[in-house]
Q: What sequence folds into this?
């Protein structure tokens, strides 16, 4: 069967962009496998990796490159004023960005080809936090992307599906020479930096609603300078009062500390296993807290085990 061409606007033949009813995919694993991947949502990979240098491998590579270029262009255009006739529009939300990234992750995972998966997944994981933090957060889609990345890396690091323990395509002879120590070190760096960045991102975003509630006061500042000064004084008093209330709940010796030091203590006391820092954290936000804590959780476990015990090239 001839290989059809790849189009970024249509489903890629051969099963790499899964259509509603794919007929050209290699024989999938038993149907029960689809129920063992609820957390990741990734498709089942093809049975064997694409042959290096083959026409199909090159088509997948070009498709991924084009999609990454499109994502980058849409990200850049987010900061530009739209022009009539623009074929590519900037992203308007994190949801739009995450949708494109997830589709690309599905294609890479479905390819079952480590020589494509490893470098492109590392590049996506490196760039995604920078793209993401330019938008107001949309936790469901954001964490969905991170779960897929975590699943991919944890599986590739072990050469087996992290849930089913099935050997991955391309790892029939083990992990040696497939995912190198250089790959692992880079992966570890990306993972650790991402966790810190998302902690800061989510902490900053939690403060945004408070700022928005003060918009009326800011409008009054523009109308009358005198009233503005009074409003500023009232706002400052309110903020100080709030800080004092928070300090009394967490400080053991408030009189002996400056407010900055007290805030730092509160942040340290609220630090959980994930390192998430937020002095305003509330009980109803526990699910969100745990989602942040689980970013790249499986990948970190795999990296810790492998880097300490193996002699990889």
A:
């Amino acid at each position: 069967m001839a290989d059809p061409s790849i189009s970024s606007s249509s489903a890629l033949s051969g099963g790499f962009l899964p259509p509603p009813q794919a007929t050209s995919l290699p024989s999938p694993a038993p149907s029960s496998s689809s129920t063992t991947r609820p957390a990741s949502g990734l498709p089942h990979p093809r049975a064997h990796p694409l042959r290096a240098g083959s026409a199909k491998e090159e088509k997948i590579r070009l498709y991924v490159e084009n999609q990454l270029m499109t994502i980058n262009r849409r990200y850049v255009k987010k900061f530009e004023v739209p022009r009539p006739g623009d074929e590519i529009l900037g992203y308007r939300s994190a949801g739009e960005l995450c949708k494109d990234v997830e589709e690309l992750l599905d294609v890479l995972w479905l390819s079952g080809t480590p020589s494509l998966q490893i470098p492109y997944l590392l590049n996506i994981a490196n760039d995604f936090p920078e793209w993401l933090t330019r938008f107001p957060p949309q936790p469901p889609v954001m964490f969905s992307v991170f779960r897929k990345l975590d699943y991919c890396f944890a599986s590739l690091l072990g050469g087996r599906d992290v849930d089913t323990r099935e050997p991955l395509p391309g790892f029939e002879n083990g992990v040696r020479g497939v995912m190198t120590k250089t790959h692992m070190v880079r992966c570890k760096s990306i993972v650790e930096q991402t966790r810190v960045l998302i902690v800061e991102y989510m902490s900053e975003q939690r403060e945004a609603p408070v700022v928005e509630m003060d918009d009326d006061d800011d409008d009054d500042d523009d109308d009358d300078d005198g009233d503005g000064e009074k409003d500023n004084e009232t706002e400052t008093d309110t903020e100080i009062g709030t800080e004092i209330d928070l300090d009394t709940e967490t400080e053991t010796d408030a009189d002996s500390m400056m407010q900055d030091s007290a805030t730092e203590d509160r942040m340290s006391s609220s630090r959980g296993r994930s390192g998430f820092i937020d002095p305003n954290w509330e009980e109803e936000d526990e699910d969100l807290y745990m989602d942040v804590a689980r970013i790249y959780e499986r990948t970190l476990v795999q990296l810790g085990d492998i880097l300490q015990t193996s002699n990889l090239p």
